[in-house]
């Protein structure tokens, strides 16, 4: 039996990894040995138990600590097992990439003639309302109107630290392909945390649903062919 609890989670405190919900409400998982029955005198290790650990971009930017509560079976001297709760601490380093694996060797269920499974947590990016990660860079889409694109505008770009960076489009016509790169406002590089990726700003121009005939006439007379 194995379950885990993220101290940041506010939903069901026990999350199933490989099995279903057990009687009593908590989720339990089962450890399977795909090697067949253990041979006498030769213990077999259960397959690793993996679970995704979702981390926000803000936590990836500065690093954080996650405490995961597991519940497992522990082998007694008389050959019986009892349930035990244990807290595993994961120190997420700044800039860790999605897919990074953290392994806790032999923390799975104990039992006769077997080696407990390794517990493996896999770092995943938690969905963000503003940014999307691309390696150590992050992307932000700035929405502007067609009027702003043609006549010029200034926008404020948010960052992971809460700071806002102004970008001015006052002397140019903004095109759908316009991109701005703010150096050093991305995520730390995993192997060089003192360096950071960039914040890449793409522009999304909102076109009007329809134009009046008078507006069309003005644009026809004003815009170059």
UniProtKB/TrEMBL annotation:
Residues 49-208 form the Chaperone DnaJ C-terminal domain. It comes from the Eukaryota. The keyword Chaperone applies. One of its GO terms (molecular function) is protein-folding chaperone binding. Coiled coil: none annotated. Residues 19-48 are annotated as: Disordered. SUPFAM superfamilies: HSP40/DnaJ peptide-binding domain. One of its GO terms (cellular component) is cytosol. Pfam families: DnaJ_C. InterPro entries: DnaJ_C, DnaJ_subfamily_B, HSP40/DnaJ_pept-bd. Residues 28-38 have a biased composition (Polar residues). One of its GO terms (biological process) is protein folding. Keywords: Chaperone. This is DnaJ protein homolog 1-like Protein. It comes from Tribolium castaneum. The lineage of its organism: Eukaryota, Metazoa, Ecdysozoa, Arthropoda, Hexapoda.
């Amino acid at each position: 039996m194995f379950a885990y609890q993220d101290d940041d989670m506010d939903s069901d405190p026990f999350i199933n990894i490989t099995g279903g919900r057990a009687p009593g409400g908590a989720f339990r998982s089962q450890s399977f040995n795909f090697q067949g029955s253990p041979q006498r005198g030769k213990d077999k290790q259960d397959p690793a138990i993996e679970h995704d650990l979702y981390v926000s971009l803000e936590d990836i930017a500065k690093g954080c600590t996650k405490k995961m509560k597991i519940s497992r079976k522990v082998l007694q001297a008389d050959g019986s097992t009892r349930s035990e709760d244990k807290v595993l601490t994961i120190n997420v380093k700044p800039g860790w990439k999605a897919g990074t694996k953290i392994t806790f060797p032999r923390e799975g269920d104990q039992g006769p003639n077997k080696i407990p499974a390794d517990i493996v947590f896999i770092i995943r990016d938690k969905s963000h309302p503003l940014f999307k990660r691309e390696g150590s860079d992050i992307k932000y889409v700035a929405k502007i109107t067609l009027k702003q694109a043609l006549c010029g505008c200034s926008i404020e770009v948010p960052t992971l630290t809460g700071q806002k960076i102004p970008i001015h489009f006052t002397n140019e016509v903004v095109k759908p392909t316009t991109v701005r790169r703010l150096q050093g406002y991305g995520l730390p590089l995993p192997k060089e945390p003192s360096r950071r990726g960039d914040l890449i700003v793409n522009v999304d121009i909102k076109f009007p649903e329809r134009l009046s005939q008078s507006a069309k006439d003005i644009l026809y007379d004003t815009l170059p062919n």
